[in-house]
Amino acid sequence: MATLELSDVTKQFGSTVAVDKVSLSVGDGELVCLLGPSGSGKSTVLRMIGGFATPTSGAVLIDGEDVTKVSPEKRPTGMVFQSHALWSHMSVFGNIAFGLKLRRLPKAEIAQKVEAVLELVGLGGLGKRQPNQLSGGQQQRVALARSLVLEPKILLLDEPFASLDQHLRERLREEVRDIQQRVGITTLFVTHGQDEALALADRIVVMRDGRVEQADPPDVVYRQPRTPFVAGFIGTMNLVDGEVRGGRITAGGMSVPAPIADGPATLAVRPEFLQLTRTDAADAPVAHRVIDYGTHLMVDIALPNGERLKAMAAPNDGFKAGMRLTLTPREIAIYRDGVVAHQAAIAADAAPAPVAAVHG
């Protein structure tokens, strides 16, 4: 097993800074997801760890050893790309055995290792098949097996399920997580899908414009986002500009305690923490659309100033499009100058009837 350390790793392409002084420690056996939108630098970080790109500055260390200038084939890493890139002229067995043959291992040992890894990824008995005889999900498992059979210290996964349909993607990510835990291999997984990161990771590293915005366990990233970007990127978050005056923030027709200095601020409320009640007030927010997901209702709310919010309600709450509503947040975060300034659950007696007429 292994540890990974990135120390102020930077990558420039001409005048463009793709990765800007990223530092990260990954523990032995930990699965870390690099999450962010396209262009955030997450794949470039992975390529630098694997040796497919050289940092402009900074260092990559595996088990304390500097591998920054070590070529990919000499690093103790295995990489699985979005495109499984299997050799079509080789059988499944041949694809997986190729790296072992380059190491000049005995045929019997190669066969034993290949069969063992095929069983590990759920493809036992399929070694003689050609890649074109497999489904997309099976082909991606072969690509994973091809990396695992070399027994790398660090496994690198670069959006390996992006080309698969949703149901297959969900099933495979659970299988990969199970395999990773059984083998105990230190793993970095690049994705732009928040659901994958929340489902897979021990820790999520949220990246934006080449920098790390937050690196924490999934529950912390979801419940305690440090910046408005993280708040809006992970899950669904209502972000409403407002004003703090006298220890309260008024935004989007809501007014809640805010023990911070007076001035402009942004109120953040998750849909599941935005309580709705019906009202006859003419200037109240309106339910623009109600979507029934079976397990819950998602209410799309139009504020008087044209902004939209979302709230989650129980299926039998009876909300319909056109209803006028009061909005009562039960858990909030307040952001100022790009960072969280206050976060709290709101007691029922601390959140009086919302001020519906106020335009956040």
Quick overview:
The protein is an alpha+beta fold and 360 residues long.
Structural account:
- This protein has 360 residues and is an alpha+beta fold.
- The protein has 2 domains: 4-228, P-loop containing nucleotide triphosphate hydrolases (Rossmann fold, 3-Layer(aba) Sandwich), CATH 3.40.50; 236-350, Nucleic acid-binding proteins (OB fold (Dihydrolipoamide Acetyltransferase, E2P)).
- Helices cover 23% and strands 35% of the residues.
- Strands 6-7-8-3-9-10 form a 6-stranded mixed β-sheet, sandwiched between helices. Strands 13-12-11-14-20-21 form a 6-stranded antiparallel β-sheet. It has a 4-stranded antiparallel β-sheet with strand order 2-1-4-5, with helices on one face.
- A hairpin with a 2-residue loop joins strand 9 and strand 10 (211-216).
- Helix 2 (92-102) packs across helix 3 (107-120), helix 2 (92-102) packs parallel to helix 4 and helix 3 (107-120) crosses helix 4 (136-148).
- The longest helix has 18 residues, at 166-183.
- It is elongated and about 80 Å long.
- The N and C termini lie far apart (52 Å).
Count of discrete domains? 2
CATH fold-level label of the largest domain: Rossmann fold
Radius of gyration, in Å, reads: 25 Å
Shape category: elongated
SSE blueprint:
Blueprint: E1 4-13, E2 16-26, E3 31-35, H1 42-50, E4 57-62, E5 65-66, E6 77-80, H2 92-102, H3 107-120, H4 136-148, E7 154-158, H5 166-183, E8 186-191, H6 194-200, E9 203-208, E10 211-216, H7 218-223, H8 228-233, E11 238-245, E12 248-251, E13 254-257, E14 263-269, E15 274-278, E16 286-292, E17 297-302, E18 308-313, E19 325-329, E20 331-336, E21 339-345
Parallel strand pairs: 3-8, 3-9, 6-7, 7-8
Antiparallel strand pairs: 1-2, 1-4, 4-5, 9-10, 11-12, 11-14, 12-13, 14-20, 15-19, 16-17, 17-18, 20-21
Helix pairs in contact: 2-3, 2-4, 3-4
